[in-house]
């Protein structure tokens, strides 16, 4: 599931976690309400289903606004924000359990990206999107990449080579920050 909506890691080594537990709870509530109404199948249930869907979309938009605003405020002007390119995530998660798939693919990632790009531009900052390959599997200290480094169930990362340990989302943010530095130095990022 989505334990953190966003994780930011800056050049001073500071990590900011945007907690997703409340969001997870609210989304589960909306999912239960939709399931109940879909089982009824009546015309009034379909109308209520439409209303609930609109309410959930407004709520997700509000959350995305709040988080993108907080990011831009936190890091100020002339900041390079690095996001994973999550295009096609729905297709990539077809082998994931249905319960987990809903958690992963139903958040408005593209909307989040658009909002961050717009707000960053207003503050003289920039957003780049990079390939997400191995960002949560690569050790930011020694560079070792191995699937066994990451324990998805416990959201932990432990490098099998150097022993560096941290939260797996933080590791992903650290590796995205490294890709941002590569972009600044070389003008491109390695996939």
Q: Compute the number of strand runs.
A: 7
Give the helix tally. Answer: 6
User: How are the strands ordered across the major sheet?
Assistant: 5-6-7
Tally of structural domains? 1
What is the structure about, briefly put?
This protein is α+β, with helices and mostly antiparallel strands and 191 residues long. Helix content is 51%, strand content 15%.
What does this structure look like?
The structure is a single chain. With 191 residues, this protein is an alpha+beta fold. The protein has one domain (4-190). It is 51% helix and 15% strand. It has helices spanning 21-40, 43-75, 89-92, 98-105, 109-122, 168-186; strands at residues 4-9, 15-19, 80-84, 126-130, 150-151, 156-158, 165-167. The strands form three sheets. Strands 5-6-7 form a three-stranded antiparallel sheet. It has a two-stranded antiparallel ribbon with strand order 1-2. Helix 2 packs parallel to helix 5.
